[in-house]
Prior knowledge:
Blueprint: E1 2-4, H1 13-23, E2 29-32, H2 51-54, E3 60-63, E4 81-86, H3 92-99, E5 107-112, H4 127-149, H5 162-180, H6 182-192, H7 205-231, H8 238-245, H9 252-267, H10 273-280, H11 283-293, H12 300-312, H13 321-327, H14 330-338, H15 356-367, H16 369-376
Parallel strand pairs: 1-3, 1-4, 2-3, 4-5
Helix pairs in contact: 1-7, 3-6, 4-5, 4-13, 5-6, 7-9, 7-10, 8-9
Amino acid sequence: MLLCLESQVQMGTQALEERFRRKYPHLRILRIDSESVADPSHAAFGCIAHLNEILTQYDLVIASPSLETGVSIDIRGHFDAVWGIFQGVQPINSVCQMLARVRETVDRHIWIREWGMSVVGNASTCIGGLLRSQHVATQANIALLSAADNDDYSFVDQNFQPESLQTWGKRGSVINVEMRHYRESVLAGLVEDGYTVIDTLDADDDESGSVIESVKAASVELYAAECQAIADSDELSPTELKKLQDKRAKTKTERHQQRKAELSRRYEIDVTPELVEKDDDGWYPQLRMHYYLTLGREFLTNRDAKRAASQLEPGENSIWKPDFNKGQLLPAVLLLENLNLLQFLTPDIQLRGSDKKMVEFKALAVTHRHIIKNYLNVTISEKHTPIA
């Protein structure tokens, strides 16, 4: 059996591998993901080049999108089914391609999330809206940077490869439409590929609930062990870290050492399991934003100017708008300042939705919801409470 998944953690390849090993210890299981194929000590190391020889040695193969394109599994009579769990991370065509890696006509059993989670740009579903948001953001970024840096950025070529940007807009709008109707779009793509789609009955709540809990338990246990292993890893010198970063094939121990060294240099504090978890949860960009809103405000202009220069120099004064806009923090910081967000970050102060400043904050956010969406990628609705 081939099981197709979208990620390595949570309900991904590693958690399900652990669950199946516990429940079916007699099965020969192979996990194929970005880590295992690059680990010299793992059975999946370098397997992509000769899959048809290796896969016959296993009863269950659990694969991430590492097995998505450029791969053809032509063996016959080995896999009796292909299974897939798709939670809305991959584009529709990627899902369809992954399910088609096994060329033999066997049943495909799939679960698909109703809506997707990955969007392009400001999530607009029309080309005009997607491109317009990038044009507006670029002009605002350049104007704000010019004013703050007291420099002239009129030389910047904002019309770099317009045909490529048009293609980006077309493809991005298609992806955004598909993500809003993820399950429906995947099924439509499969029908177009020639599959016959048959709805199955919902599983018994008690049965499906127990399966979910067992996978979650395995995931929590594996993740806790991973965080602890990173924290317990040996310290690396700058030279050793650089050597490891340049190395493509790494053992699990080497990956842990590299992660610890990078975290140590990023935060300049002791690396603990809790720090690893916070970093995975997006702590660093939150700290960085808070820093530039407060203590580091005077350094923000210089930071953005350097980021702009790093793109302008190799591009000969031309910029690719989506990348340029992602690199600039000044508009987001100014927006949060104008929203007066810091007034709510006073320790030990309780806030209620009925408070006058909360009501005013909501009114301001709703009025400028389109700007907020463009620069912070946060969707504001009038239905939201002030606290939300």
